[in-house]
Amino acid sequence: MENDAIIKIENLIKRFPVGKTEFTALKNVNISFGTGEFAGLVGPSGSGKTTLLNIIGSLDSPSEGEVIVLGKNVSLLTHKQSAVLRNRHIGFIFQTYNLLPVYSVYENVEFALLLQNMSGSERKKAVMAALEWVGLTEKVKSRPSMLSGGECQRVAIARSMVKRPEIVLADEPTANLDSSNSHNILQTMKNLNRELNTTFIFATHDEKVMKYLNRIISLEDGKVVKDLLMPDSKN
């Protein structure tokens, strides 16, 4: 994985100020990810998995160490350069969907493309392709309030995938879903991972998610304690 790594993390330390002291959320983390992985950062609340996901997504920066994402050192990026990296190359999926309530399904997905240099016809083609991936082409005019939780999360997946990013970061994407919807969502993401060779990285402690992962990286108290390939994950 080192040779074709699209994400390389070396000696990463992340500290946060707490009053007059500091809390070390990540402690000397060393990991790399290759193209097309379906991997999970797994651990209890407070283990550092969301902090690590945020740094990979250039939403935060290291206190020490290096994080190289698609050849870019996130510590050295300006706010504008970080935004370009996220807008063009990284998709995000959150447990709370983060859909815009006044926008239709179509508009929510299209929103991710508005900063791209694309014509209206190109955007329409990309949006409809993304909605077809998640099985929601018949819901293009619906508002989020008219959808189920599972459908909202499928819209969020379409929004994250519409620009065909190299990397998708998913923070507890099944936390608000029942078992049936969780498996449907995970199978959708697994299919996209296989078809588009997109690298998916999850932050989760959900057993349902773990069954689908090809690689599980276990964190405890900010440290990587295990890094296992999972050959028997669901296809």
- Please give the count of helices: 7
- Give the mean pLDDT: 93
Spatial extent as radius of gyration:
18 Å
What would you say the CATH architecture is?
3-Layer(aba) Sandwich
- Oligomerization status of the protein chains: single chain
The span between the termini is 21 Å
Can you list the strand order of the major beta sheet? 6-7-8-3-9-10
**Into how many domains do the coordinates divide?**
1
Quick synopsis:
The chain has 235 residues and is an alpha/beta fold. The protein has 7 helices and 10 strands. The model has no long low-confidence stretch (mean pLDDT 93).
Keywords:
single chain; 235 residues; alpha/beta; Rossmann fold; six-stranded mixed beta sheet; four-stranded antiparallel beta sheet; 30% strand
Question: Please, could you describe this protein's structure?
Answer:
This protein has a single domain, classed as Rossmann fold (3-Layer(aba) Sandwich). It is 31% helix and 30% strand. It is built from seven helices and ten strands. The chain has a six-stranded mixed β-sheet with strand order 6-7-8-3-9-10, with helices on both faces. Strands 2-1-4-5 form a four-stranded antiparallel β-sheet, covered by helices on one side.
Write the layout of secondary structure elements.
Elements: E1 5-18, E2 21-34, E3 38-42, H1 49-56, E4 64-69, E5 72-73, H2 79-89, E6 90-94, H3 105-110, H4 120-133, H5 149-161, E7 167-171, H6 179-196, E8 199-204, H7 207-210, E9 215-220, E10 223-229
Parallel strand pairs: 3-8, 3-9, 6-7, 7-8
Antiparallel strand pairs: 1-2, 1-4, 4-5, 9-10
